[in-house]
């Protein structure tokens, strides 16, 4: 484990895990064109050194570089590594909170993954795990990374207005549950959080907080982290005008285990898919339906009847529904190996039915 200047590993500290992203990015000509940059260039130790003078007094930090990538290249084995590191840290009495610096492109997936595998543990251990990132590279004028990282460190290290332990994200002065993150703007500084139910980091919104507590009460058991190489293969297919049966048909017999159908409107899909999806179901390919619109819930049997087996994804976006289906397929496999007759649908329903924070 690498450490930043103030480190005392067995005394109480905040653990900062580096994954890369724009927060660790470098632009070649930052003054001229800050958006021409490479993500994942600067180590997490250096990011902490840049803000050292502003770190709240008495907060000791330990840092660990898990990866330094552009998060569009995030893969499942890295999620396994990150999940295991977070679980270990949650069990370590010296760790009082965890901050993860991460690219914003796929923070959405990592956020839900950590909620499903570590959310209950974080609540029980009364520790906050905070994802943060940036939209501007570290050497850009007005870079947003330092203030986001400082907010995340404060959020992870301070007792704030009854805010319980859990998996959160902080960007642009606001905090949300990490499972609610959704990057829906290419460049805005608040892109990952602007469409998510959130609170100001300095003044906690009480109705948001009651939603956080409702999620904590509903999420009663974490799901197992798939081992490296054990992640179920799940693809996302988007329905659109002119959709072809081959878009589904090409997956038949491929070994794919699940399909997320990002449908139009409230989660319907092109009629051209009906027959190949029936064939996919007969091959045991799990299917969930969500909406490509970017917001709102996909409900069971709306707009059309779901054949038995296919599930609606509630408010889960397509990237989140994909992680949820992978976790559900893996959890059902582990349960069956342990002699429990549970299905992926049993686990997926627990996820899709989590209370919606408004
Ligand atoms: C990334 O996701 O690694 C690049 C984009 C970003 O962090 O904003």
3D structure, described in words:
The protein has 358 residues and is α/β, with parallel strands linked by helices. α2 runs parallel beside α3. It is 31% helix and 18% strand. The longest helix has 20 residues, at 318-337. The strands form 3 sheets. The protein has a 7-stranded mixed beta sheet with strand order 4-1-5-6-7-8-9, with helices on both faces. Strands 10-11-12-13 form a 4-stranded parallel beta sheet, with helices on both faces. It has 2 domains: 5-218, Rossmann fold (3-Layer(aba) Sandwich); 234-352, Rossmann fold (3-Layer(aba) Sandwich). The chain has helices at 44-50, 76-91, 107-125, 145-157, 206-218, 245-249, 274-282, 318-337, 344-352; strands spanning 13-20, 26-27, 37-38, 61-69, 95-101, 128-132, 166-171, 174-177, 198-200, 234-238, 258-263, 286-291, 311-312. Residues 20-22, 39, 70-72, 103-105, 133, 135 line the site of succinic acid (SIN).
For the record, the CATH architecture of the largest domain stands as 3-Layer(aba) Sandwich
Stretches where pLDDT is under 50 for at least 5 consecutive residues are: 1-6
The CATH top-level class label of the largest domain: Alpha Beta
Domain count, please report it: 2
Tell me the β content: 15-25%
Order of helices and strands: EEEHEHEHEHEEEHEHEHEEHH
- Overall pLDDT, averaged? 94
Instruction: Look at the helices and sheets and give the structural class.
Output: alpha/beta
What is the helix content? 25-40%
- CATH topology descriptor of the largest domain: Rossmann fold
Radius of gyration: 21 Å
- Cα distance spanning the termini: 39 Å
């Amino acid at each position: 484990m690498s450490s930043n200047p103030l480190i005392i590993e067995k005394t109480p500290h905040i653990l900062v895990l580096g994954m890369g992203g724009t927060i660790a990015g470098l632009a070649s000509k930052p003054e001229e064109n800050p958006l021409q940059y490479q993500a994942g260039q600067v180590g997490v130790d250096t990011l902490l050194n840049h803000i050292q003078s502003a770190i709240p007094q008495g907060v000791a930090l330990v840092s660990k570089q898990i990866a330094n990538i552009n998060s569009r290249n995030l893969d499942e084995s890295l999620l396994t590594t990150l999940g295991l590191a977070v679980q270990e840290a949650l069990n370590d009495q010296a760790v009082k909170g965890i901050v993860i610096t991460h690219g914003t492109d796929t923070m959405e997936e990592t956020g839900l993954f950590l909620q499903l595998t570590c959310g209950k543990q974080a609540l029980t251990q009364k520790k906050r795990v905070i994802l943060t990132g940036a939209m501007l590279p570290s050497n850009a004028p007005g870079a947003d990374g330092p203030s986001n990282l400082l907010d995340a460190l404060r959020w992870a290290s301070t007792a704030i207005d009854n805010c319980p332990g859990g998996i959160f994200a902080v960007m642009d002065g606001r905090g949300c549950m990490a499972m609610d993150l959704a990057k829906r703007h290419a460049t805005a500084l608040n892109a990952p959080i602007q469409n998510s139910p959130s609170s100001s980091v300095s003044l906690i919104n009480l109705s948001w907080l009651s939603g956080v507590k409702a999620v904590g009460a509903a999420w009663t058991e974490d799901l197992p982290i798939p081992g490296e190489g054990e992640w179920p293969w799940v693809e996302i297919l988007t329905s659109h005008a002119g959709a072809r049966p081959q878009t589904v048909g090409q997956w038949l017999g491929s070994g794919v285990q699940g399909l997320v159908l990002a449908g139009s409107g409230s989660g319907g899909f092109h009629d051209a898919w009906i027959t190949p999806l029936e064939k996919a179901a007969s091959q045991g390919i799990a299917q969930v339906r969500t909406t490509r619109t970017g917001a709102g819930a996909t409900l069971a049997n709306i707009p059309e009847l779901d054949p038995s087996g296919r599930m609606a994804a509630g408010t889960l976006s397509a990237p989140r529904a994909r992680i949820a289906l992978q976790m559900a397929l893996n959890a059902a496999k582990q349960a069956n190996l342990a002699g429990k007759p549970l299905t992926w649908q049993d686990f997926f329903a627990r996820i899709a039915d989590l209370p919606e924070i408004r």
